[in-house]
Amino acid sequence: MPIMSSDDFSIHADDCEDVGAGMSISDLPDEVTSIDDLECECWSGFDSLEDIE
């Protein structure tokens, strides 16, 4: 399940060490249309958004 950082509202994988404080979200924001929209390196193990959900 994705986590939104409370520091900068970036989206991270639930096992990401860089997320800091945050909260779980059930869906990715509408502006995320591809895996490339997720900036953190924690998403490098995923090939597409379908792999996340």
Keywords, separated by commas or semicolons:
mainly beta; 3-stranded antiparallel sheet; 53 residues; globular
Can you tell me about this structure?
The chain is mainly β. It has one domain. It contains no helices and 3 strands. It has strands at residues 3-5, 11-12, 22-24. It has a 3-stranded antiparallel sheet with strand order 2-1-3, with no helix packed on it. The protein is globular, with a radius of gyration of 10 Å. It starts with a strand and ends in a 29-residue tail after the last strand.
Widest β-sheet, arrangement of strands: 2-1-3
What portion of residues is helical?
under 10%
Number of domains: 1
> What Rg is obtained from the alpha carbons, in whole angstroms?
10 Å
Q: Give the integer mean of the pLDDT values.
A: 92
| Number of extended strands | 3
Overall shape: it is globular
Low-confidence spans:
none
Q: Regarding quaternary structure, how should these chains be classified? A: single chain
- Ends apart, CA distance between termini: 7 Å
SSE sequence, one letter per element = EEE
- Approximate strand percentage: 15-25%
The description of the largest β-sheet is: 3 strands, antiparallel
Structural class, by secondary structure, is: mainly beta
- Secondary structure tally, helices: 0
Summarize the helices and strands and which ones pair or pack:
Elements: E1 3-5, E2 11-12, E3 22-24
Antiparallel strand pairs: 1-2, 1-3
Compact description:
The protein has 53 residues and is mainly beta. It is 0% helix and 15% strand.
